[in-house]
Amino acid sequence: MNTHPLKRHIDEIIPIEEEEFEYVLQHFSKVRKRKNQFIVQEGEFITKEFWVIKGCLKAYFFDDNGKEHILQFAMENWWITDYDAFTNRNKAKINVDCIEDCELLYITYENREKLSSEMHKMERFWSKKTKLGYVALQNRILSLLRNTAQERYNLLFEQYPALFQRVPKKMIASYLGVTRETLSRFQS
Description:
188 residues, alpha+beta, Jelly Rolls, 4-stranded antiparallel sheet, 9 helices, 22% strand
């Protein structure tokens, strides 16, 4: 039997029975997006959290000078949205769009809350995912503050080598907070 990728993802943290998963899956919807399509746009109210089945996305914003700053990439098995807007029910401060054609599952805020209140396992799953996300964010901030640009590049390449095959170099440079020229020096 071929196990659903979302069940495998959940099972990594909190094993759930097949019947439980079937109930969980009823609370998700599937969507396909083309390259360059938005799933989150700055200024919109955000009610969905997305899980990547296939594809690659970026979360970013533009500063007052029009420079793009990439906050996050999301590939298969990663979650993405504007978490401030999703959690606090306000307007998005960032954009999320597709770098590649994407196949996604999404859950609404209401359905996530419903599942969390009905199923202790799902409440624990999202609690653990939130903690892991917070740790990753803290490590990213520490890396930006402590490490040289070369060290940040090396760390990203070590952790996510596939990203470098899928994402244009100018986006990698934006994520690392360096110019495209600086990035080229690291690669030579």
